[in-house]
Amino acid sequence: MAAETIVKIDGSYGEGGGQIFRTSLALSAILKRPLEIFNIRVGRREPGLKPQHLMSANATAAVTGGRLEGAALNSQALNFFPGYIVSGRYNFDVASIKASAGATGLIFQTIVPVLSFADGSSDISITGGTHVAWSPPADYLREVFIPVVSKTGLDINITVLKYGFYPIGGGKVDIKVKPCSKPLNPIRFFERGNIKRVSIMSAVANLPLSIAERQRDRAVKTLQLANCKVQSEIKEVPSSGKGTFLFILAEFENINAGFIGLGAIGKRAETVADEAVDEFMQYWRGDGALDPHLADQIVLYMALAKGNSSFTTTRITNHLLTNIWVIEKFLPVKFEVKGNIGEEGIVLVSGIGLSR
């Protein structure tokens, strides 16, 4: 593949238009291949680029010295011409584009794989929503995603300095990324191993602590009825706005899994707890190693790693298949997916062993 060949991506393919956008940007930057992406998030109630998508594009351009065309709010087409990845200290604030709770986790997903192939260590500050819908919360990235990615040899750390909730945002995370000095190791997760612990964190920001207590009590009671022993804590977290969440972390010998319920105006504390518990129970009753969200996030690293990677998951999703479709547009890899959508399955690939 010639380095100057433009990769053209139809953002309307499958599901997960935002995910198509992020993965395309990351691979374009890593491979130094120009990108043309169109039909961005078409069919959505508000199509085109939202603040977190635009900041993801701006951030990717910043860390590569790249050039963007069509980078504007609500734009449904964008061209990206990457330069060379440069390590350093970077600060990205979603509010610099528009006051919102744009997800820091989605920006994290875009630039962390890029800076993993930089010429040195990087320190990144991202300001926006840390615990908002349709994105991985900072707790999940720290406790579930990063431990798995570390198996490839990458060294990534995330710290929550301030929590950000919808609609104000204003949360802040600090991310440290050390570059890979050799091709990424393959990763294989076929069995969870024995359960070590299940823990619950119920948190509130600028709201009565009793809400966190109700969330915790509901989750603990439901899990105990299912014969699941749990540890729990309640926290008051710093934030510019009001918010609440309940995070369940399931730690096994070989893998961690995480599940979250987010509060909202008019939403009962018990409902927040039930949402996290329901997702956990679906995972708990299955046999797959990776939870569905981790499955679609990890395939990019598998494709870049050297050798054969594989995992089992409790549910094959359209998001997973869509992300695989994007990766195969950029890389000479062919994923094998065994299983039907909505069911447990196996994912295998032989990665390219990309070197920095």
Please give the structural blueprint:
Layout: E1 7-10, H1 17-31, E2 35-38, H2 51-64, E3 67-69, E4 77-81, E5 89-93, H3 104-115, E6 122-128, H4 138-149, E7 155-162, E8 171-178, E9 188-189, E10 195-205, H5 209-225, E11 231-236, E12 243-252, E13 256-262, H6 269-284, H7 292-304, E14 306-313, H8 318-330, E15 336-338, E16 345-352
Parallel strand pairs: 1-2, 5-6, 9-14, 10-11
Antiparallel strand pairs: 2-4, 3-4, 6-8, 7-8, 10-12, 12-13, 14-16, 15-16
Structure description:
This protein has helices at 17-31, 51-64, 104-115, 138-149, 209-225, 269-284, 292-304, 318-330; strands at 7-10, 35-38, 67-69, 77-81, 89-93, 122-128, 155-162, 171-178, 188-189, 195-205, 231-236, 243-252, 256-262, 306-313, 336-338, 345-352. The radius of gyration is 20 Å and the shape is globular. The chain starts with 6 loop residues before the first strand and ends with a strand. The protein folds into two domains: 7-188 and 290-352, UDP-n-acetylglucosamine1-carboxyvinyl-transferase, Chain; 195-281, RNA 3'-terminal phosphate cyclase, insert domain (Dihydrodipicolinate Reductase, domain 2, 2-Layer Sandwich). The chain is 31% helix and 28% strand. The relative contact order is 0.13. It contains eight helices and 16 strands. With 356 residues, it is α/β, with parallel strands linked by helices. Helix 1 (17-31) packs parallel to helix 8. Strands 1-2-4-3 form a four-stranded mixed sheet, with helices on one face.
